[in-house]
Amino acid sequence: MISRRALELATAVLTGSFGVAVVVSSLDNGIGWSSAGVESGTFPFLTGVIVVLGSLYNLARGALPGLTLASVPIAITPTELRRLAGLFVPAAIFVAAMPLIGIYLASAVYIFVVLAIPKHQSPMRSSMMAAATALGLYVVFERMFQVSLPHGALAAAFGF
Amino acid sequence: MENLQELLHGFNIAITMPHLALMVIGVLLGILVGVLPGLGAPNGVSLLLPLTFGMQPVSAIILLSSMYWGALFGGSVTSILFNIPGEPSSVATTFDGYPMARDGRPTTALATAFGSAAFGALVGVILITFLASWVAEVALAFGPPEYFAVYFLAFASFVGMGGAAPIKTVVALGIGFAIAAIGIDTVSGSVRLTMGVDELVKGVNFVVAVMGLFGIGELLVAVEEEFHARAVSSKIDWREVFRAVGRLPRHSVALLRSAAIGCWMGITPGGPTAASFMSYGIARRFSRRGRYFGTGEVEGIISPETADHAAGTSALLPMLSLGIPGSATAAVMMGGLMIWGLNPGPMLFVDQKDFVWGLIASMYVGNIVAVVLVLLTVPVFAALMRIPFVVIAPLIVIICVVGAYSVSNSYLDVVMMMGFGIVGYLFKKLFYPLAPLVLAIVIGDKAEDAFRQSMLMSKGSLGIFFANRLVTCLVVAGIVLLLLPLALQLGRMLLRKPALPGDPTTSQEKVII
What we know:
Strand order of the largest sheet of chain A: 1-4
Radius of gyration of chain B: 22 Å
Strand content of chain A: 5-15%
Oligomer: heterodimer
Structural class of chain B: mainly alpha
Order of helices and strands of chain A: EHEEHEHHH
Helix content of chain B: over 70%
């Protein structure tokens, strides 16, 4: 279970660290005024500072119990978390597998796994849908629009 | 009158067989993404974007804008028949649309929604027809300081009127600006903010951000709740369609008021979602039958629908004449314009007359096409909703992955897209607004250029933003909007008025924006 407060704080920390990274990184480009005009780091530097300040404010608001907008103390219940993971984890593995086995194989396996393993569909129908997805991608992108999608290192090893 | 002549010329361009075919394709694809939860107009338009590179700009924009109309209509279908908003901007339609459909009047609800939506869109297009070229003419005299002031005003109005927590809006805007700055700086040519990743030199494409924020992010929000598509009958009774549309003029006050709210929110970048909620809230407050709202009131459908479409349409006005998109989808379209080699802004009205007036004329035709098609296809798309979400979700993931990859054949884009997905989920969950983030990514560079050019002109003095009456007015208006939330809060604290007891619309509003 994740409370609304924890989520607010985590997000504020996330945006804040992005802001800090922007500020630090833009200092390399130089900030302020030079003979050539406003230096290229200035604008990112300012936005970085704004993001950091805004995140600090959101952090404070999230931390102070009396001030939060949170009428709902719980942001994500365990059931919801399970559903989220059920969608995101396979998707992340799918993306991670893409460079290795290529998008066609990866998407077919992905569709099959998310449909057949939790028993949403029968293995037969799942494999049909998986094959149809890969084929559809190939026809639409490789054939119709001439967009080459990643074939993967595995396919390259076999000479495709 | 010159406008009307140009418009007639535009109709010559828009009403040709290939363009009508593109409208039909665009509207159907739009209804599809509008109906599917997790895919919305910004996503759909960015997915189509790479396919338009070989087209004439005017054909491309007709396809994309038709998709936008289709998505706006498609979102209402699922709101009314399934109580599931296909688009954030059609959430307010569920409040009265679904109860009416559930009570056995689905045709009335749908026809009322489409009729008022068409009216809202019509008002928006008429506004564009008469106002856009005038605004562009004024804007032709703009220099960099005026441009920066207009950008500033646009961003400030998000903060002041967007409806989300102001500081969260500011953070979203800032992040967008920083993302826009990644890559090669257009002025000095130096490389910025790549944090050591060489591939980031090319910058972060807004399509990648849109796919993640709106696609994966929305999917993650949607998967939390299990959808039960309890459909009401989706059969259309054609006689009732005409009867329902015929009854619309009785609600002309609500129609006109909602259209005005929608146009205002579309031009100042409040966007369709905020417009529909605001219009619904105001209608409930002013209608004599206000306390029946939520049980299937006709005006409860008319108000959000009219405002939604009026805002969606008029969001294209500032995009065309100033180069500032009024909604997330308009921002994506503007990105397209830049990719096609057009320069959004007043010069369009001088250099690209065919493009501008072809687009405006196509809005009239496209909305008619959309109304007809959406009525004809309601049963088909309603059947689509019966496909379980577990089957649709992985397909949408694959679509987003392919969409992000095909922008520049880069695997890093796919990884970033997934990252944006998490950000999109967190932001949606915690009511950070997404539209300003996308807007800042698309026009961040232009705003920065305008600022730096102004600084060059003034040799580093900020006084240039107060140098003449026009620019001073714009900047002051922007500052007022920025400080508006603060002033309201101070006012509330001084008056010590207790918070309004449980206003469901405002809490809903926060949830969505």
